[in-house]
Automatic annotation (TrEMBL):
Alphabetic keyword roster: DNA-binding, Phosphoprotein, Transcription, Transcription regulation, Two-component regulatory system
Keyword S-adenosyl-L-methionine included in the entry's annotation: no
PROSITE patterns hit by this protein: OMPR_PHOB, RESPONSE_REGULATORY
Alphabetized InterPro entries for the sequence: CheY-like_superfamily, OmpR/PhoB-type_DNA-bd, Sig_transdc_resp-reg_receiver, WalR-like, WH-like_DNA-bd_sf
Single GO BP term: regulation of DNA-templated transcription
Protein name: DNA-binding response regulator, OmpR family, contains REC and winged-helix (WHTH) domain
Species name: Saccharopolyspora kobensis
Occurrences of domain Response regulatory (ranges): 20-133
Classification via Pfam families: Response_reg, Trans_reg_C
Residues recorded with modification 4-aspartylphosphate: D69
One Gene Ontology molecular-function label: phosphorelay response regulator activity
């Protein structure tokens, strides 16, 4: 029996209200360190040692966040993430080995919210987990201007729902936060480092994280992602969200 098999049902455990973090990691030493730090940070971590068990536990416990290793026996982390995204927008932080740029980009393109390269500081992982959880925590009702609009695109920051022409669009946490930030700053060029700081809460990071999330957003909100009318690239600087009817510029 694996550690995951012995995991209690944390929907009814004694730490009511503690964020439930699913850690899918086959290296038991790494898993023990990560779950230990998360536990001390006030979270309820549950460990799965392979991808299939990770998917099963994700269905059973409905975690608040998933820490997912790329290199797993059987189903690898990319396959697990893609399967998760068919039915859930749960925040996912991926763990990749240093230098695995292809895996990192595939993870972001498949719907990961963030990533850490091994070897990593467990304290930094906890900080990133807290950053994501802060953005997904329940908030009091917001005023009407918390509903942002750009033509037929509507972003309801209270309900955390995005719709286009009346059809709801599935958004990961970071996709939602990125879109809301850009829309709140419509018409202004926003640098990539500002987006890393404001959306990912990182003072520095890999610019490809922003690039991939922008590409994913365009695939969801643009009529023609190859010729974006809303989310423009300002070459050498960053991005600008143009409201319908606003002046052209960028691409």
């Amino acid at each position: 029996m694996t550690q995951a098999d012995r995991a209690p049902d944390h929907r009814t455990d004694g730490r009511s209200g503690a964020p439930r973090i699913l850690v899918v990691e086959d290296d038991l030493t790494v898993a023990q360190v990560v779950t230990g730090y998360l536990n001390r940070a006030g979270c309820t971590p549950v460990h799965a040692s392979d991808g299939a068990m990770g998917l099963e536990l994700a269905r059973q416990m409905a975690p608040d966040l998933v820490v997912l290793d790329v290199m797993l026996p059987g189903l690898d982390g990319i396959e697990v993430l893609r399967e998760l995204r068919t039915s859930s927008q749960v925040p996912v932080i991926m763990l990749t080995s240093l230098g695995e740029e292809e895996h990192r980009l595939r993870g972001l393109e498949s719907g990961a919210d963030d990533y850490l390269a091994k070897p990593f500081s467990p304290r930094e992982l906890v900080l990133r987990v807290r950053s994501v959880l802060r953005r997904t925590a329940a908030v009091p009702p917001a005023p009407a201007d918390e509903v942002l609009r750009a033509g037929d695109l509507v972003v309801d920051r209270t309900a955390r729902v995005v719709s286009k022409a009346g059809r709801e669009l599935g958004m990961t946490v970071k996709e939602f936060e990125l879109l809301a930030f850009l829309l709140r700053n419509a018409g202004r060029v926003v640098r990539r480092d500002e987006l890393m700081r404001e959306v990912w809460s990182h003072d520095f990071g890999d610019a490809s994280t922003v690039t991939v999330h922008v590409r994913r957003l365009r695939e969801k909100i643009e009529d023609d992602p190859s010729r974006p009318a809303l989310l423009k690239t300002v070459w050498g600087v960053g991005y600008r969200f143009d409201l319908p009817g606003a002046g052209a510029g960028g691409r």
